[in-house]
Design a protein that fits this description.
The complex is a heterodimer of chains A (121) and B (666). Chain A is elongated and about 50 Å long. Chain A has 121 residues and is mainly alpha-helical. In chain B, the strands form four sheets. In chain B, strands 2-1-3-4-6-5 form a six-stranded parallel beta sheet, with helices on both faces. In chain B, helix 1 crosses helix 2. The radius of gyration of chain B is 28 Å and the shape is globular. The two termini of chain B are 39 Å apart. The N terminus of chain B is likely disordered. The chains are: A mainly alpha (121), B alpha/beta (666). At the A-B interface, helix 3 and helix 6 of A face helix 17, helix 18 and helix 23 of B.
């Protein structure tokens, strides 16, 4: 609950600071994928944002760019904080564009091997 | 390492030459093949003139090695074709090992234990123990570790007390942290005048065990054969008494070579297993009272199930209380198919618990507190009124230098006793404390946990679909494809390296770990270079037990000790190795990156020193070069199933196989 409250307040502050108006380039999924790989997001979240034990899935429910920036800058959890000096707001917007371009995962039941694992009791 | 002794004393050489000729003349014609049987023969004539501290004079083999030509040495040594009627110190040592039913000695050959090596293979018939050829002493130690966890019987390693032990040290430490018994037999030449040249000097030490004494439970350097017998049996007993740990015996090369004049005067003490200590009964009853009265009891386990019985008892305790179990899985404790295995819900269950019992948990503090490496802070994650209880052997044996005992955990009740040995008394006490009304209330908890268990599994199943078709292959896809090929076999996941988190714990999220042997834990000390050799050791045990051994192998770990693959090929050890080839020391990549971010210096250089690229390593070719069937590197996930199916076929035919899968980081 504390984390959520912190997050909401942060987002509000960033919006108030005019974060959105600071973006002067249209976000690019291609550029975002390059940045996503270069700054190491893939290490914990997979090369397509699918997530793993080290970091949650970032797709298909991708945070809006402003919320993503807030989390990346100030998250209180175990994820490394990415300051402005390391990752700009525009680059974060690009990353979000990339993540939004990733097709949603299939339902497990549509995959034979995973359907075979379905518990029936 | 040098394998030969070098003669330095001309006078001694002359004496040895004469004695060897005399010894050869009297011994060889009457040699009888008596492998496995102790022999008694008088020493060669004239040899009594040169005695060392009351020991017998140099053996025929010693004398011949130093005075005869190489061909004569081969003939005198007997090789596999003949055996002398003379009995040597090392033969008696093999008798002692046989009395303990020591199955295997994992070793790389060395000149300080030539006598033992020869006695194992010739006198002992290379069975009980069998000499397993290892390509590195570190691998030998890991193999003995993995072997124990699969067979539940200790194995031995044998190496130089100096350079060999230096190699073996890291995986001895892994065994120490893992509470695994093994016997380290260290060759040494104690008497300086018995050292034949510079190498012997470099391979000798006053106190060879000194460098590993901080992480071995007991050691000795026996000075007579009778003392060896007693120390070997004593060491075996100490190692296998909880807390189980490695022990070390430095074995003098002169003692190995001495001729036994009166075998009948030597006795092998009877080994009687030491029964593990049970927790004090009053404290156990109080634990039961608190557990029965609790609204939200929680059981945390790490190494409580030493045997299959431990697993059965843990299930019984959990079901009596309908208490969820968090399995930290240094052993396979709680079946993950059981609805009370709630490991995936660890955080929330710890927060809501009013009584928490830790059974053989090394790091109890680390479970009831949360640590944030990024902020370098920690905070309790339990409620103020929670009752904390520990039952373990952590306080029965400790050493202070290495800090694997973890942070001190303040608790309400600390019971020193072996967890598995204490479970029957705890179960009885819980049964006595349970009144009918309480039983009904406790029974009411089951439905909630059944639903949580099912939901957790379903969540994992859905998450496994993420990135299903992507390349590099997701670890979920890799593990699901692998499970599809083995689930109808009697399989065992014998190693995942230093942590199952490296593969996002997909096996425990999706596979059915319903037997004690399905999982053997990890390299507990975090030392890299454990995974592959430990898997080979475990697979050797499983071969006799009819189990299909599977190893999910991290690439960084593989490159420390890939010679273990040759050992598997040479000894026909069936083992399926699936490479988790993410071309990086991924954990460190992430940690270095986190540090750089915290210091606001960018992540551009975080891959320096942390990736295994340029060039990429072809693990399939490496395996092929060591005589192991292989496939890969596989980057297309659709190619994985057929390759794994073929690999399983190879393994079921009795051989090792490796499938190289290019994977996501985790």
């Amino acid at each position: 609950m504390k984390t959520r409250l912190f997050f909401v307040i942060t987002v509000a502050l960033m919006l108030a600071a005019g974060w959105a108006s600071a973006q002067d380039a249209t976000p690019s999924a291609t550029r975002g994928q390059e940045t996503y790989m270069r700054v190491g997001c893939y290490q914990c979240h997979g090369t397509n944002g699918q997530g793993n034990d080290a970091g949650p899935a970032l797709t298909p429910k991708t945070l809006p760019a402003v919320a993503m920036a807030a989390f990346v800058r100030l998250n209180p959890g175990r994820m490394p904080v990415y300051p402005q000096e390391v990752l700009s707001d525009a680059e974060i917007a690009d990353i979000v564009a990339f993540l939004q371009s990733v097709p949603p995962p299939p339902d497990a039941d549509s995959i034979d091997l995973l359907r075979d694992l379905k518990q029936t009791d | 390492m040098a394998k030969d002794k070098h003669k330095t004393d001309p006078g001694r050489r002359k004496f040895l030459r004469n004695a060897a000729l005399a010894g050869a003349a009297t011994t060889l014609p009457t040699a009888a093949a008596t492998a496995g049987q102790p022999n008694t023969t008088a020493p060669p004539a004239g040899a009594q003139e040169e005695t060392v501290r009351g020991l017998s004079p140099p053996s025929v083999q010693q004398m011949a090695r130093e005075a005869a030509t190489p061909d004569q040495v081969e003939q005198l040594a007997g090789g596999s074709k003949s055996a002398t009627a003379t009995s040597f110190g090392s033969d008696f040592m093999i008798d002692v090992m046989k009395s303990l039913k020591l199955g295997y000695v994992f070793s790389n050959p060395g000149s300080s234990f030539l006598g033992l090596h020869e006695s194992i293979t010739v006198y002992g018939g290379n069975t009980t123990p069998e000499f397993i050829t290892c390509m590195h002493e570190e691998s030998a130690a890991a193999m003995a570790n993995g072997y124990y966890k699969a067979a539940l019987e200790p194995a031995a390693i044998m190496c130089h007390g100096t350079v060999g032990l230096q190699h073996a040290a890291m995986n001895l430490y892994n065994a120490w942290c893992d509470r695994v018994p093994l016997i380290a037999i260290l060759g040494n030449t104690i008497n300086a005048t018995d050292r034949m040249g510079g190498t012997d000097w470099r391979h000798s030490a006053q106190d060879p065990v000194a460098m590993v004494r901080d992480f071995t439970k007991w050691d000795d350097q026996p000075m007579s054969l009778q003392a060896f017998a007693e120390s070997m049996v004593r060491g075996w007993k100490i190692a296998t008494t909880p807390p189980m740990e490695p022990v070390a015996l430095a074995v003098d090369s002169t003692l190995q070579e001495m001729e036994v004049e009166d075998r009948a005067s030597l006795t092998i003490p009877r080994f009687t297993p030491s029964q593990p200590p049970q927790g004090e009964l009053g404290a156990v009853r109080e634990t039961a009272r608190l557990l029965v009265a609790a609204d939200n009891p929680l059981i945390i386990v790490d190494r409580v199930a030493r045997t299959p019985t431990g697993m059965r008892l843990l299930v019984e305790l959990a079901e009596l209380l309908n208490a969820p179990v968090i399995d930290l899985a240094s052993r396979q404790n709680m079946p993950n198919t059981h609805y009370l295995n709630q490991t995936r819900q660890m955080g929330s269950l710890i927060r809501e618990a009013d009584v928490i019992v830790g059974l053989e948990v090394t790091d109890f503090w680390g479970q009831v507190n949360a640590v944030n490496r990024a902020t370098m802070t920690s905070a309790p994650r339990v409620g103020k009124d929670v009752k904390l209880i520990t039952i373990d052997v952590n306080n029965l044996y400790l050493k202070s230098n290495y800090q694997d005992f973890q942070r001190y955990a303040p608790v309400d009740l600390s019971i020193s006793g072996d967890g598995e040995a204490t479970l029957p008394a705890l179960i009885d006490a819980v049964k006595q404390a349970l009144k009918p009304g309480r039983k009904r209330a406790i029974a009411g908890r089951a439905e909630r946990f059944r639903k949580m268990h099912a939901a957790s599994y379903e969540e994992s199943r859905q998450l496994a679909a993420y990135g299903w078709t992507h390349s590099p292959v997701s670890t979920a896809r890799m593990c699901t494809e692998l499970y599809a090929q083995i689930k109808d076999e009697d399989w065992a996941l014998v190693s995942v390296g230093a942590s199952e988190r490296f593969i996002s714990q997909w096996p425990h999220r999706l596979w059915a770990f319903d037997e004690h042997y399905r999982y053997l834990g990890v390299g507990a000390g975090g030392g890299v270079g454990y995974g592959l050799p430990a898997a080979v050791g475990a697979a050797l045990a499983n071969k006799a037990l009819g189990r299909l051994s599977v190893n999910i192998q991290c690439d960084g770990d593989f490159m420390y000790a890939n010679g273990a693959l040759w050992t598997a090929a040479h000894h026909r050890i069936p083992l399926l190795t699936v490479m988790h080839n993410n071309r990086a020391y991924a954990q460190e990549t992430m940690l270095v990156q986190g540090t750089a971010n915290r210091r606001k210096r960018g992540v551009d250089k975080s891959k320096i020193g942390t990736v295994i690229q340029d060039p990429n390593i072809d693990y399939a070719k490496l395996a092929e070069g060591m005589g192991v069937w292989s496939a890969g590197p596989i980057e297309d996930p659709d190619e994985l199933g057929p390759a794994l199916a073929e690999a399983v076929r190879v393994v079921k035919s009795g051989y090792p196989a490796l499938v190289d899968v290019v994977t996501q980081m985790r």
